[in-house]
């Protein structure tokens, strides 16, 4: 196998949360563990989907991967280097090679900048020689299937449709020819009719640019369309990791099972069987002991309350964190 | 028929001129049915369904048409008469559930307010009823004492559904009730609707942009495009045998979890500006099947029992469907 582009080890993020009167009185500083002890690797050119319930820590993880926020514990290695220990030059290079695509195209771009200016700015910041700008922009625009025409580049964000805007946001990430992008719900704000276009662009970029990508979404159907591999998160932790096709066909973790079963399909003849799980996401400030999923799990046993299940290899390139799944 | 919307036209007075957000819309809601309203952002879904409550922004104008609830025209009613129907017969869950609940009051208090103020219940009866309502939507009674911000997104959705059900209305209008939720919570909220529909013979109008959601819970579907209904009918008929090219295109734009890995095709271009809509079929510029006749207003074509498509070529829908399934059909269509 290739040397991984990204290696994540024990990555953890805790946020301070507001103190109640009692906390102030007792000198307590409550914290919320948004991401807990996450490990995985990403090969160059690999696309990884991250799925999970709202609030399970997907965005927080994505932001740590590109150093938008720092980790509380653990580390992210990019091309063999710890991203928290980079020199200024290394950091500048990292900022060029790793890009984020924001969720909401409607506020990702400065409304007072022309599209051209929004696309030039990153080139300028990365000190790309001015004479290359035109060609870089044309290249990025063609990748996202937008015309690099003068009148288009001179327009302002409010003059474009949601789908066009999201393409510009994507072009802005690609203009620096990155090796790695994190796309956080890149199509969730878009209409179904235009969403397919962006998903196709993401697929093409994956196949032609050899870009490593993390695609965050709570919609497994979208992830399946774009990513070869998928990670399921639950309450900050990775509970399952494996090839997307295998996960969709045969999910192993009880939470992933529910997730797969809950995705509606655009056909009337679909299963209405009750989901195996009930309840909502537990309070991240007081997660259950042992397995974090146990209070919603239909299979939970005494062991699940006592012992935190580790993410274990179960064969076929898959890992699962559940006491009840036997290794193959 | 519980509710009949006929030739409804609604304008907004805006600085740019009059925006005709809803332009001659027709649909029915049978008693005990779940009716889905789908369509692109800005096509007039919220405007059309909010009109049924008559709680509209002051810039909105009912220009034409009727909305008949059990034989009475809502459009013609006095405000006083209309107030009698709100909550009791028709309840509305707004597009963002955040707006349905007041952040400064405990959720239980807000439900009691409706029960006492609108329903004339005693405080004690209202408290018991609140607990019953929370149980119906799968929330614990003790959470009645919480403020909205202490609820997760899914819990807030359920609480606003409980609020809407307070006075046992016949019709609940829910505007995008699951759009912001993840699939597990979405499924739970949708199952809540189905259960209530069965238990209470409730009718529901559910606005969404997701045809999978429609396929999952709805009995009937109304597809809107640029202020007009382009197709409507029983869900199975519309989804299995779409008669309008826009509906066909929507289907191809959806990835399907269990299905084969087919290539998706976007519907290129964007809908027309409602300030100055083109004459004739409004989907024309994005339609791979447009012909000269499409410069004229499309006729209403009956495809099957209760299944109608507004398209000049609806008679050839069978053949068009096959062509529409090919990705290349949708490439490079936009003409304007
Ligand atoms: N800056 C912050 N301060 C305090 N808590 C935070 C902060 N950012 C996120 N959180 C909390 O961390 C947890 C994870 O949030 P995150 O945004 O990463 O979830 P997510 O999986 O991206 O959810 P969604 O699908 O809703 O976008 C949540 O409980 C959230 O409330
Ligand atoms: N108060 C208003 N004043 C002027 N125009 C309005 C007003 N509210 C809505 N519109 C316009 O009317 C049209 C229909 O809006 P509406 O909110 O009904 O659409 P929608 O289908 O619900 O969209 P979405 O899916 O984004 O919620 C849009 O073009 C919108 O810009
Ligand atoms: Mg997020
Ligand atoms: Mg709306």
UniProtKB/TrEMBL annotation, chain A:
Keywords (A to Z) from UniProt: ATP-binding, Nucleotide-binding, Transport
Subcellular location: Cell inner membrane
Alphabetical list of Pfam families matching this protein: ABC_tran, oligo_HPY
Ranges where the ABC transporter domain occurs: 19-260
Gene Ontology molecular function: ATP binding; ATP hydrolysis activity
Keyword match Transport: yes
GO BP field: peptide transport; transmembrane transport
CDD domains: ABC_NikE_OppD_transporters (cd03257)
Family per similarity comment: Belongs to the ABC transporter superfamily.
Annotated protein name in UniProt: ABC transporter ATP-binding protein
TrEMBL record, chain B:
Gene Ontology CC annotation, any one: plasma membrane
Keywords assigned: ATP-binding, Cell membrane, Membrane, Nucleotide-binding, Transport
Record-level Gene Ontology MF annotations: ATP binding; ATP hydrolysis activity
Domain of life of the source: Bacteria
Gene3D superfamilies: P-loop containing nucleotide triphosphate hydrolases
UniProt entry tagged with the keyword Isomerase: no
Every ABC transporter domain range: 3-251
Membrane topology: Peripheral membrane protein
Localisation: Cell inner membrane
Any Gene Ontology biological process: peptide transport
Chief location of this protein within or outside the cell: membrane
Coiled coil: none
Similarity field: Belongs to the ABC transporter superfamily.
Protein known as: ABC transporter ATP-binding protein
Taxonomic lineage from the root: Bacteria, Pseudomonadati, Pseudomonadota, Alphaproteobacteria, Rhodobacterales
